[in-house]
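The instructor's notes for this session suggest beginning with a concrete chain rather than abstract definitions. Hand out the sequence below and ask the class to guess, before any prediction is shown, which regions might be ordered.
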Amino acid sequence: MSTTQPSGTLIGLTVAVTATRRREELVALLERRGARVVEAPTMRIVPLGDDRALRRATEQCLSGPLDYVVATTGVGWRGWMSAADGWGHGLRLAEACRQAVVLTRGPKATGAVRAGGLGETFSPPSEVCEDLLGWLLARDLRGRRIAVQEHGAPLDGFTAALRERGAEVISVPVYRWGPPEDPAAVRRLLEQIVRHEVHALTFTSAPAIDAFLAAARSLGLREEVLARLRDDVLPVCVGPTCARPLEALAVPVLCPERGRLGAMVRTLAEALPARHRRELRAGEHHLVLQGTMVVIDDGPPVRLPPLLATLLRALAEHPGWVLSRAELLRRAWAAGQRDEHVVEVAIARLRGALGDHGGIVRTVPRRGYGLVTAS
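After discussion, reveal the predicted structure:
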């Protein structure tokens, strides 16, 4: 990394991936831009296999004509059609949907429907279920049969509103979310967030956020994690529907203009370095900080451990100021740490990590630590 580092690079920055589906693709996109990636899927997809609930819902759809069919996700729609094929119902289900009015939520669902030889009557630009619901509620639904393809989590409010208008609603549960395969990875991620070791969090579904917050609550870390998300950790969601659980908690969320993984990574790569990159002078030296990386006087980049990087960034916020041990303890350690001796040990480690430039961190007796100032 140098002062002419290309815009958008994520070198020195740590990004967490919470997705299950297409996780490898997202990780590769982030690593290609230089990010260190922490993988901690907050849920797992329960495979279709012999999913009896889905098969019963499919047979119910075929028991009479359908008036409306709602496709909410591309992967869910394809999974439903594939499962129906496996049970020998594929052609009948496709014909039942062809005779109905098909509604789609967003371009992925629309693409999946069209790939199956069908067409949609309505797809809201907002890509939110509420607009699909509004379109339906503007019609007379008494006695109408409506199939609603779900993905991962029930759409209870959506289906209840349709039933209140007199519709017969068939919930089609394509895939279900289960607990994560590696709960320890989620726990480690939460602890890393509290310790200032993560710079951004990526989410590709609202249920993943709900599961993430539930895990934080179970560990007693929910409020501390939310405080980090409102401050120094950037939450990035693939789209506005995904972002809603965080926005409801007053957490600012970054979303790309288009709900695609590539667009999400590009948006992240444009925004994150600006939050974590700093250039300054310490005495006669020029420093460039980005995340856990530091370059001094155009020398080779040095990757610092997260704690030491947090300490250096705290000192660099106001070059020349002296920060007390208590202040550095508050900024760089998790709540509950009271032993100020750990600050002395960490400062010594920071000087060692900076090698020949360790002298830029000065000790002010009985006051604390700061960066050297110009002579």
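Then share the key points. Residues 46-178 form a domain with the Rossmann fold fold (CATH 3.40.50.10090). The first helix runs from residue 23 to 32.
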